Each structure stands twice: as structure tokens, then as C-alpha cells.
Amino acid sequence: MADHYRALLERIDRGRARVGIIGLGYVGIPIVIRFCEEGFRVIGFDIDHEKVVQLNSGRSYIKHIPSECIASFVNTTPPAFEATTDMARLSEMDVIIICVPTPLSDKREPDLSYVEKTAGDIARSLRKGQLISLESTTYPGTTEEILLPLLEEKGLRAGRDFFVVYSPEREDPGRVDYTTKTIPKVVGGFTRRCTTLGTALYSRIVNTVVPVSSLRVAEMTKLLENIYRCVNIALVNELKMLCDRMGIDIWEVIEASSTKPFGFSAFYPGPGLGGHCIPIDPFYLTWKAREYKFSTKFIELAGEINTQMPYFVVQKVMEALNSQGKSLKGSRVLVLGIAYKKNVDDLRESPSLELIRLMKEKGARVDYNDPFIPVAVSHRRGFTMRSTPLTEKNIKRYDCVVIATDHSSYDYKWIVKNSRLVVDTRNATAGIKDRRIVKA
């Protein structure tokens, strides 16, 4: 064991460890880039053949990651980075980092099928001296209860023959004030030596590594971070609905409260929760808590409130149209922004999709515009749509424009000027005085 441990630690310290990243998405690609920037040779693994071909040609499919960045690592001799669908090549790796999705099932239960499939792929070629790091968000106990038994099926033992850590991803697509390098990385290992190896590995690509005492602490850390956001967003969403009835501007209230230099952190309301983390991760803990006969009331209540927000927005659209003598049924509605947050091309769990479904269900003729997403596909809601060009002629055709995602590229003064009615869910029109604006 000591020989495997020391040999791997030396390879990591010298930058000679061969790094494999499984899952080349919003989490995997930034990690690929950081290891390449530090001189490591990296192989990316993904089941999507088209994605692999695109990356190997030096093209990025993620809006905020330029193709030039990918090309700079693909076009070296030998390549600093290459992508493959061949999972047998995992045997070549010294380090394997798992960045696969962990969604919810239709019954809102954890779906660990991607993690289990990946663990099976690794187990088939697992050899002594490898370090396996799981980054996918999940409930406490997953690494020990699900991942380790699958990896140990052929007789190798974690902590002795190979090493295992959990290090939760902290990516925030589109963010510019923090990067993969500057965001601290939490690492928990199966054994002390596992933690040491994980700390050494991630210290090569991030400024600060935070070792914790166990796998479960690391797993719980990620859930707390996202539950904290989920509960606080639910709070301001509930207050937004109350303030709407009371005739108070919730955005002004938040701005005023933010002047307090201690004891307050600003969270902002919206049309609902989006992205892969906040709408999903809290329910991983809710599910696991049932095993301990414990009810996570705050989490479940926050989920209920946030899930109701699209319904609140649609009700505001109906009321706004009604004030102009129109009904939602038969009206033409343009949704501005279908990405789950501003300035990204990420559609996952976007509240805009639910807004569109609800308004279509009530008989509205709905289109959308998003400069980052030319085609939107929602299998769950049964529609495929194309982005409508945002021209003066086009926007004047709609009875109502709903600002669902506040992309920076939108000219909100122009939008208000050329629209018959604007329902603003993001306070994007702050400072614009016009009777056609309705806050929702």
C-alpha cells in the first residue's frame, strides 16, 4: 500500500499523473482546462460521440468557454487534452474524476444510475495505485454505500490498493468574479492517505483546498451550500408574493436591507428555480433523511414555495392582460430568456420552460427569444421551439412580453418602448418608468 501511495503522490507532485475526467459538461470541462493549464495530460471520457468529436476538433459547445481555449490544448504535440468514448482507456489513468449527472427520478428520488454506470466502467479496468474522485452532488453516504462496493467487486480494496475521495463541484456557469482556480475545494477521503492524495491533486489546480474529516462531511457540505440558497430564495419568493398584495416593491426592500453591514445577505426572487443544483440537490437530503426517520420541513417547504413561482407569474400575466381587456387564451406572449440564469446557455430545470408550458396549457400562443439558446427542447413538457428574432417588427406583434431571464445583452429601454405590455420577473426594468411594466 505504501508503495502505491508514495508513487502516486510523487506523480501528482511532479505533474506527471495522467488525469481522466468522466463527464465533459459544465463541471468536467473547466476541470479539464485547469489541469491542462498546469501541464497535466488529460483524457476526457463521455458517452456522447458527437460531443467527443466536437472537442477533439478544438470546438467548445459551452457558450462561456471559448473554442480557442479547447483548441490550444488539443492542438499540441502530443495533445494535452483528448476526448474519447472508450472507457477501457480508464486503465491508463492515475487519477479518475467523476463529473456525471445526479438528477431526480420522476418520483423526486435520487437517480444514481449515471454514478453506478460510471463505477462499473471504472471497476472493469481498475488497477492498483489509482485515485478515484467523485464530484457529482449526492447525499451523505453515497461514496461509501454505492461507489465503493462497485469498485471493490473484483477484490481490490479502497485505501489499500486504490484511493477514493469525494470533492463536491462548485461551478457557477457564467460567473466572472470567481473561477475554478479561485474557488476553494473541499476534499474528504475514505482514509487519511486518501485525503492527502486528494488534497495534493486539487492543490495543483486551485488556490485553496479544504480537507475535511470524512467522505460524508464532504458530501453534506455541498448539500448545505445549495439548501442554504434554496431556503433563502424561497423566503424572498414568498415575501415577493406578500409584498405584491401589500403594494410594496420587494426589490426596494432588499436593496434597503442590504445596507446593513452585518447579519444580512441579499437573495433575490424570480420566476422559479433553475439549474442542475438548487432545484434538485436539497431533495437528495430529504430522501436520505427518511432513512433516519427525520422530516426535513424547511427543505420541503422551500421546495413547495419555489415550485409555485411559475404559477404566480402566470397569474400576474393573466391579470396584466385582463387590465387591457384581454384574456391569456388566444393572446400572443413572448418569453425573453429561456436559460435558467443570465448570460449562460444552460437550459437545465429553467423556470422559463414551466412558464411556457403553463401559458400554452391556458391557450396562449407562446414564443421565446434567447441569444444563447437558438433551439429549446423540453422532452418532459413535450415541445421543441426556436428562438424568435428580437426585432422591432416582431416584438410589436405580441400582446405581452415576459422577462424571465435578465440577459445583459437585452436593451430593456428598447424592449419596453416597443412592447404593448411587459411583465418583469427579474427587476430588469428597474429605473424605467412606464405604465406598461408589471412586476411579477
Could you walk me through the main structural features you see in this protein, from its secondary elements to its overall organization?
With 440 residues, the protein is of the alpha/beta class. It has 2 domains: 2-213, NAD(P)-binding Rossmann-like Domain (Rossmann fold), CATH 3.40.50.720; 238-439, NAD(P)-binding Rossmann-like Domain (Rossmann fold, 3-Layer(aba) Sandwich). The chain is built from 14 helices and 15 strands. Strands 3-2-1-4-5-6-7-8 form an 8-stranded mixed β-sheet, sandwiched between helices. Helix 8 crosses helix 10 (281-290), helix 8 packs parallel to helix 11 (297-322) and helix 11 crosses helix 12 (351-361). The model has no long low-confidence stretch (mean pLDDT 94).
**Termini distance?**
60 Å
* Mean pLDDT reading: 94
Q: What level of helicity do the residues show?
A: 25-40%
Q: Enumerate the spans where pLDDT stays under 50 for 5 or more consecutive residues.
A: none
CATH topology of the largest domain: Rossmann fold
Order of helices and strands: HEHEHHEEHEHEEHEHHHHEHEEEHEHEE
- Give me the secondary-structure category: alpha/beta
